[in-house]
Amino acid sequence: MPVKRNMQGLQFCGVFVRVETKENAKLKAVHKLKEKIGLFASQKQEIWDAMNLRVGKKWLAYGLRRIKESEIKPLGLSTPLLDHIAKFRKDGMKTDHWFKTLLKVWMQDVNAKNELNEDVLLSKYIAEPALAQDLRDAFYNFQKQAKDYISSETAATEALLSNLKRAESISTFTDGGIIKIHAPLSYIQKCLHRYGLINLEGFPRHVSALVLQDDELIVSWFAGIIHRWIRWFSGVDNFKELQLMFVESVRKSCIRTLSAKYRMYEKLTEKRFELDDHGIPMVEDFEATIKPLESSYSFASTDEALMYGISNSGLFVLTLSRVRVPTRQFNCFVMGCQSASPSMYVLHVKEKQRFPGWRTGFSSSIHGSLDGRRIGLCTQHVKDLYLGHISLQSVDFGSLVR
């Protein structure tokens, strides 16, 4: 079969179709042990870095306090070293400025501009040299042993995989091959970056275009992304990995957007807003959240999912243009809606490319000419557009011209 010889699989209607062999017990055990050791070593490295950073910050605070104490010589708190340094202090220079000058001279001496950030500077030049040599040697020896083990197991895994591939190439389709359907996770991550939910490093960030909108609309926009992908990918074999992406990217980006709006800590934001009730669940609550969503889907409410390629039904975000002006009031631009439009919105299209539509996971066919158009909408229809219950086909873009 052609799909069996293609390692990338067959690309069809938003998913990958691959033929894979059944999991090998040896390969699974090697992967599991290697990942555990790698995770343990990374955790120890994080603890080591955090400890050194804390020591460095305490040294910085102590140095500033001692410099300030040098001004009160009558109390007898000065030291010979501080008295010697104080000779180079210019007349009229404030204490904080003087301390910054000392730090600047020291940073030039150690060539600090080559370091990644100030955390590395404090750890490398202040905290670590102050630690016992035996402690430093033991830690770096442990990290070296862990790295050597992981690299050796990687080589062994590659050799095992090559043997499995050779065995697969001479086997027939009935020898244990399994057809699996996978969601394109790498491209979905690129979409998240294009939508503004994650940065270049893959970490979630707040969506600034949503900060000025109501809380319900902010949550609905993020929930709409999850609802669309659940419609398309609920039956794929790597849906568990997609769930982790939902939580690590979409849910955390929603929390950070609400935190940026209210300037709150993320933990307080998560407690204040019940995101699970709006369809943005944690991993352990996914099954309970998906069932009511799937049961509520109908042909009328899921035109994006069932009518692939429907025009003007990709992802977009609305930003506030202005609130209602008494001299000129508009009704909602959705055809058949007579509700007043409390605000004017500017349409920002996130999916302008029509083809190849399979990569996006849902239809991506909003025409580029609609980008930047101003429309008036009631709150309910903004929510429906965000959740994907209706598409931009229902919006009369000529209402503003009349």
TrEMBL record:
Record-level Gene Ontology MF annotations: RNA-directed DNA polymerase activity
Superkingdom as given in the UniProt entry: Eukaryota
Domain X domain segment(s): 180-267
Signal peptide coordinates: none
Database matches in Pfam families: Intron_maturas2
GO terms under cellular component: mitochondrion
Gene Ontology BP term (one): homing of group II introns
PANTHER family named in the record: COX1/OXI3 INTRON 1 PROTEIN-RELATED, NUCLEAR INTRON MATURASE 4, MITOCHONDRIAL
Protein's UniProt name: Domain X domain-containing protein
Organism: Panicum virgatum
